[in-house]
Specification:
The complex is a heterodimer of chains A (119) and B (877). Chain A is mainly alpha-helical and 119 residues long. Chain A has four helices and three strands, in the order αβααββα. A three-stranded antiparallel sheet of chain A has the order 1-3-2. Chain B is of the alpha+beta class. Classes of the chains: A mainly alpha (119), B alpha+beta (877).
Chain lengths: 119, 877
C-alpha cells in the first residue's frame, strides 16, 4: 500500500494503542479478551469501549503494528466471528521506541525534580 | 441464521454509519465481541447508552481517519501515520473555525437555525427529564429494587393490590420467609392544633419497622423503635421536612418537643430529609396494636410493604404469599372472596402508572424535533445550493472531495451542539415552569430535574440531530462537486425534490401531532362537562373538627352540628344544606369487596359504602329513579335501609325491580333497598360510575352548602356560626365542588398543555418550512417568472401558480398526515374520554386548519412573485 514506515513515525503512541499492544505481548487475543486485558492491566483506570476498540484495531492493523493471527483461530465454530490478533515485529519495535520515549520523559522529569510517588 | 438480541441489532444498525469497508471487515466481529462482553455480565441501560454514544463518535472518527489515510499524500509524499492522526484534529479545528465564521457572518440564518433546533432539543430534553425522573430514576430509598408493595388481588380490578386487615397482616408476617421484613401503613387525616389554629394533615400510620425498612436515615433524631407500635408507646411522631417547615415554621426546638395531633400530645422523635417521600404523608405516627386490633379481621385497611431477602425475586415472594393466603382466605372468606395475594416492586408500580402517558409525550416531543430537523436540513440544503459555485471553485482549486463533505457535516454538528446547549437552558426553564404549575399532578416531582443521564440524552439527541441536518447538504455538496456548471439555476435536481419531500413530511408530522392534541382537547372538554350525576355549581364543602376531649362521643358532635345547620338554614344566602361521610370525587375507597341480594347469585364487587343525610340527594341534585329516599327517623334509629345507585341496581337485579329486595352485606347483616337514584361519578369525572349504596348518616360528616356566595364568604359565614356555638370547634377544608372537580382533571391538563405546546410549535415550524421553501423557489425562479411576465403572464396568475406549488405540498402533507394519524390512533386510545379515536370533526377540523395556515404561509412568497419586475429579473444574471 504505502512504503514501509519506521518505528519513530508512529510516536508518540496514544495510551490506548500502547495498552492494546502491551496486551498482545504474550499471546494472540480476540476482541473481548483485549478489552478485558486493557482494563485489568490498567487496574480499571483505562477502559476501551467497543467502537473505540475496533477503530484502534483497524488503525493498528492498517499501520502494520498488529495482524490477524491464523494459528489461534483453530477450528472455528460455524457462525462465530471471533478473530485473534497478534503483534507484529514492527509493533514490538514501536512499543520499544515508545518505551524509550517514555523513559526519556521520566529522565526529564527526574532532572526537573519530579519523582513518581512510591505507590 | 443466528438471531440477534435487541442490542445486537442496535449495533448492526449503528454499524451502518461506518464505512462499508470497515463494516465488512469488523462488523460481525464487533457483534461477537459485544456478545462476549454481555455473557461476562449483562450491561445496564447506562452501559448501552455509553455504547451507543461511543459508536456514534467513533463512526465519525473512523471515517475521518480512513479519508486521511487514503488521501495519504502531502506535498507529493506519503504522510506518516502519526502526522495523519494529528492532521485529523487540525482539519477538524479548521472546519469548526470555518463553520463558526460562517455562522457569525449570517446572524439571521444562525438565529433561525439555533432557535429551531434549541426548541426541538429543549422540548425533548424537558420531556426526557420528566420521563427519567418519574419512571427510570431509582426511588430515593436504600436498595429500592428490593422494596415491594404486597396486597390482595382481585380479578375484577387488575393491577391493584388491596389492603388487608390487621389480624391477617399478623398471620402473614409470622409465616412469610421470602422477605426480610413485612410492614404496614394506612393513611389517616390528623388535625394539628398550634397556637389556637387547627389544620388538617395527611399522616401515615405505620408499623414500627416501616420507615426502617425503607432504609432512609432521618435528618435529625431517630425513626420508630421496635415496640413503639404497642399500645401505650405510640405517642411519638416522625415528621417530613415539608411538614416541619410549613406547619411548624422550621422550629429548631421541635425535636423531643410535643405537638398536639387530634388533641393528643405526641413527642417528635425524628425529622426526615427533604427528599424523602412516602405515599404523600406529611408525618408518621405508629399504628397501635391492642387486643382489639390484633383480632380485627372485618376491615381491610393496612397496605403492606416488604423488603425482599437478597436474591429473592418478586415472583417468588408472590408465590409464597399466595400460598400463605389461600388457607387464610378460606378460613375467613368474608370480604376476601376470589382474592389472591401478590407483590410488586415499588419501582415497577411507578413505571406502570406513568410510563404510557409519558411515552406519548416523548413521542410528541420527538415529532417536534424531527420537524425542526427537517426545517434546518432544508435551510442548509438551500445554502448548499447557494454555495454551489463556491464549492465548484474550491474543487477546481484542488480541495479534496471528502473535505467539502466534512465541512457540511461539521456545520450540521456545530449548529446541533449549539442548539443542544441552548436546549438545555430551555429545558431547565420549561421544567421549572411545569413543576410550578403542575407539581401536584406529576408523580415524584421532587425527582425531576436536569440530571446527568438527561444531559447524556441531550448530547445524543444533538449528535443525531447534527447527523440528520448535516447529511443532506453534505450529500448535495458531493453531487455538486463534479458538476461545475455555470448558470445551472432553476432546474429541478433530485435534491430540491428532496427539499419538498421534507416539507411534506413536516406537514404530515405536524398534522398528526395537532390531531392528537385535538383529540385530547376534546376529551378534556368532555371530561370537564361530563355528566357528573350531580350539580357542582354553587356547592361548597367543609368539615368540622371537634376537640376529642370535650366531644368524646358522636352524639355530642352531632347535636352541635344540628344546631349549626339550623342556624345556617335561617341565612338567606344558603339555599341548600346536607351532610355526607365522603365528598364525591374528593374521597372514595370505602367499599365492600363483594355483596349480593338475598336469594340471588348475582354479586357486585367493590360497592362504595357512603352515609348521607336525608336532604343530600335534593341538595346535590341527584335524581330519584325509583322508590323513596331516607327519612330523618331512619337516620336517628339507624334503620338498616339503603338507597342504591342505578349501576348497582342493574348489576344485582338486572331489569327487575331492586326496590324492596334485601342486600346481603354479611351473613349476619342485611339492608333493605328502599330506593334507586341516578348514577353519580363518585371517584372521577372521567371514570365510569361505580356501584354505590347510600345509608342514613347519624354522625357528623362533611358539610355540603348550596350557596350564592364564594368560598371566602362561606368560610367566614361557617366560622362565625360555629364560633357563636363553641369557639373550640374548627371549620376546616372549605372547598368548592368546582375546585374539586377541576383538581381531579389536573393530570389531563398537564398532558394537554404539553401536547398543545408541542402541536403549536410543530404547526409554526411547518409553516416556516413551507414558507422557506416557497420563498426560496421564488428567488431561484425569479428569472423564469420575469420571462413569463415579459411574455404577457398576468401577475395574478403568477401568484396563483406559486401559491399552488405550496398548496400541493400542503395537500400531500395533509393526506400523509391523516393516514399517519389513523395508523397511530391506537396509541392514545387509553387517554381519550368519550371521544372516538377516529373523530371526524377533529380530523377534518385539524386538516382544514392546517390547510388555512399553510395557505397563509404561501401568501407572502406568492405576492413577492407577483411583484417581480421582468426587467429587473432579467438583469440579475
Amino acid at each position: 500500500m504505502t512504503e514501509p514506515t519506521q518505528p519513530p513515525d508512529h510516536l508518540p503512541l496514544p495510551h490506548q494503542d500502547l495498552h492494546l499492544l502491551l496486551a498482545l505481548g504474550d499471546a494472540p487475543l480476540h476482541g473481548y479478551a483485549m478489552m478485558k486485558a486493557v482494563e485489568e492491566q490498567s487496574r480499571g483506570m483505562l477502559r476501551v469501549e467497543l467502537g473505540s476498540l475496533y477503530r484502534i484495531i483497524q488503525r493498528l492493523e492498517r499501520d502494520g503494528l498488529i495482524e490477524r493471527s491464523a494459528d489461534e483461530d483453530g477450528a472455528p465454530k460455524p457462525g462465530r466471528e471471533r478473530r485473534f490478533y497478534r503483534i507484529t515485529d514492527l509493533g514490538r519495535a514501536v512499543v520499544a521506541a515508545e518505551l524509550d520515549r517514555l523513559r526519556a520523559v521520566l529522565d526529564l522529569a527526574g532532572r526537573g525534580g519530579f519523582r513518581p510517588s512510591e505507590a | 441464521m443466528r438471531r440477534d438480541d435487541g442490542t445486537g441489532r442496535l449495533i448492526r444498525l449503528l454499524l451502518r454509519l461506518y464505512p462499508r469497508e470497515f463494516r465488512r471487515r469488523y462488523g460481525d466481529e464487533m457483534v461477537e465481541t459485544y456478545r462476549d462482553r454481555q455473557a461476562a455480565g449483562g450491561p445496564g441501560v447506562r452501559t448501552v447508552a455509553a455504547l451507543v454514544l461511543n459508536m456514534l463518535v467513533e463512526a465519525l472518527r473512523v471515517r475521518l481517519e480512513m479519508r486521511v489515510a487514503r488521501g495519504g499524500t502531502r506535498d507529493g509524499k506519503p504522510v506518516p501515520p502519526y502526522a495523519a492522526r494529528s492532521g485529523v484534529m487540525d482539519r477538524l479545528t479548521q472546519d469548526m473555525a470555518y463553520a463558526l465564521r460562517f455562522l457569525r457572518r449570517n446572524p439571521a440564518f444562525t438565529a433561525i437555525v439555533l432557535v429551531t433546533l434549541s426548541l426541538g432539543i429543549g422540548m425533548n430534553t424537558a420531556v426526557f427529564s420528566v420521563l427519567y425522573g418519574v419512571v427510570y430514576s431509582p426511588l430515593a430509598y436504600h436498595e429500592p429494587g428490593a422494596l415491594v408493595h404486597a396486597g390482595r388481588t382481585h380479578p375484577d380490578i387488575p393491577n391493584v393490590r388491596l389492603p388487608v386487615s390487621p389480624a391477617m397482616f399478623l398471620d402473614l408476617r409470622e409465616r412469610v420467609r421470602s422477605v426480610a421484613t413485612l410492614e404496614a401503613e394506612t393513611p389517616q387525616t390528623v388535625v394539628l392544633a398550634r397556637g389556637g389554629e387547627a389544620s388538617r394533615h395527611r399522616a401515615g400510620v405505620v408499623t414500627a419497622g416501616l420507615l426502617e425498612t425503607l432504609g432512609v436515615r432521618p435528618a435529625a433524631g431517630r425513626l420508630f423503635l421496635p415496640g413503639e407500635d404497642e399500645s401505650g408507646n405510640t405517642r411519638v411522631a416522625v415528621l417530613s421536612d415539608g411538614f416541619w417547615r410549613s406547619a411548624l415554621g422550621s422550629d429548631p426546638g421541635v425535636l423531643n418537643a410535643t405537638i398536639r395531633l387530634n388533641d393528643t400530645p405526641y413527642t417528635v422523635v425524628g425529622i426526615m430529609p427533604p427528599e424523602f417521600r412516602f405515599n404523600n404523608a406529611e408525618l408518621w405516627i405508629p399504628f397501635e396494636w391492642t387486643d382489639a386490633s390484633r383480632a380485627q379481621r372485618q376491615s381491610n385497611f393496612l397496605r403492606m410493604y416488604a423488603r425482599l431477602n437478597p436474591g429473592v425475586e418478586p415472583a417468588q415472594a408472590s408465590a409464597e404469599l399466595s400460598g400463605l393466603w389461600a388457607p387464610l382466605r378460606d378460613e375467613f372468606p368474608l370480604g376476601n372472596e376470589r382474592t389472591d395475594m401478590a407483590v410488586m416492586r415499588l419501582q415497577d408500580i411507578v413505571v406502570q402508572l406513568n410510563r404510557r402517558p409519558l411515552l406519548i409525550l416523548s413521542g410528541a416531543a420527538a415529532f417536534v424535533l424531527l420537524i425542526a430537523c427537517a426545517n434546518v436540513a432544508n435551510l442548509l440544503l438551500v445554502r448548499a445550493e447557494q454555495r454551489q459555485r463556491e464549492v465548484g471553485v474550491r474543487a477546481a482549486l484542488g480541495a479534496p472531495r471528502g473535505r467539502l463533505v466534512r465541512q457540511f457535516l461539521t456545520e450540521g454538528m456545530l449548529v446541533a451542539l449549539l442548539g443542544g446547549l441552548a436546549g438545555v437552558g430551555i429545558a431547565w426553564a420549561g421544567v421549572r415552569l411545569l413543576l410550578a404549575t403542575f407539581s401536584s399532578s406529576v408523580a415524584r416531582s421532587q425527582d425531576i430535574g436536569i440530571h446527568p443521564p438527561v444531559l447524556l440524552f441531550t448530547l445524543a439527541a444533538s449528535l443525531v440531530t447534527g447527523l440528520l441536518v448535516g447529511l443532506l447538504p453534505a450529500l448535495r455538496a458531493q453531487e455538486n462537486f463534479d458538476v461545475l456548471r455555470e448558470g445551472a439555476r432553476g432546474g429541478t435536481s433530485r435534491f430540491t425534490l428532496f427539499g419538498r419531500s421534507l416539507v411534506v413530511a413536516e406537514i404530515a408530522l405536524a398534522l398528526m401531532l395537532v390531531t392528537g392534541a385535538g383529540l385530547l382537547l376534546k376529551s378534556y372538554a368532555r371530561a370537564t362537562n361530563a355528566q357528573l350525576g350531580f350539580d357542582p355549581r354553587g356547592m361548597i364543602t367543609a368539615s368540622l373538627y371537634f376537640p376529642p376531649s370535650r366531644y368524646a362521643d358522636g352524639a355530642a358532635s352531632l347535636a352541635f352540628t344540628e344546631q349549626l345547620l339550623d342556624q345556617l338554614r335561617s341565612r338567606p344566602e344558603v339555599t341548600g344544606l346536607a351532610m355526607a361521610s365522603m365528598v364525591p370525587i374528593r374521597e372514595s375507597g370505602n367499599n365492600f369487596t363483594s355483596i349480593g341480594l338475598v336469594g340471588s347469585d348475582a354479586k357486585a364487587s367493590f360497592v362504595e359504602n357512603r352515609f348521607v343525610s336525608p336532604d343530600y340527594f335534593e341538595t346535590m341534585g341527584i335524581r330519584l329513579l325509583q322508590g323513596r329516599l331516607h327519612t330523618p327517623d331512619e337516620a336517628r334509629n339507624q334503620t338498616p335501609v339503603a338507597v342504591i345507585g342505578r349501576t348497582l341496581a342493574r348489576t344485582l337485579a338486572g331489569d327487575g325491580d331492586a326496590v324492596g329486595q334485601r342486600l346481603e352485606v354479611s351473613p349476619t347483616f342485611q339492608l333493605e333497598i328502599i330506593g334507586v337514584v341516578d348514577d353519580v361519578r363518585e371517584s372521577r369525572p372521567d371514570l365510569p360510575p361505580r356501584p354505590v349504596m347510600y345509608r342514613p348518616l347519624n354522625f357528623t360528616g362533611n358539610l355540603l352548602v348550596q350557596t350564592s356566595r364564594d368560598v371566602a364568604a362561606t368560610t367566614a359565614l361557617l366560622r362565625e356560626a360555629a364560633r357563636t356555638l363553641d369557639p373550640e370547634v374548627s371549620v376546616l377544608q372549605v372547598q368548592s365542588m368546582a375546585e374539586i372537580v377541576d383538581a381531579s382533571l389536573s393530570g389531563r391538563r398537564f398532558q394537554l398543555t404539553l401536547i398543545g405546546v408541542f402541536a403549536l410549535t410543530a404547526l409554526l415550524l411547518a409553516c416556516v418550512g413551507i414558507y422557506g421553501v416557497l420563498s426560496y423557489t421564488v428567488t431561484r425562479q425569479s428569472r423564469e417568472i420575469g420571462v413569463r411576465m415579459a411574455l404577457g403572464a398576468r401577475s395574478g396568475s403568477v401568484a396563483r401558480h406559486v401559491a399552488w406549488r405550496g398548496g400541493r405540498l400542503a395537500l400531500a402533507g395533509i393526506a400523509f398526515g391523516m393516514g399517519g394519524a389513523l395508523l397511530l390512533r391506537r396509541v392514545i386510545e387509553t387517554q381519550l374520554f368519550e371521544v372516538e379515536t377516529f373523530d371526524p370533526a377533529v380530523y377534518f377540523g385539524v386538516a382544514g386548519m392546517l390547510l388555512a395556515v399553510a395557505t397563509a404561509a404561501c401568501f407572502l412568497p406568492a405576492r413577492r412573485a407577483a411583484l417581480v419586475q421582468p426587467t429587473q429579473a432579467l438583469r440579475i444574471e
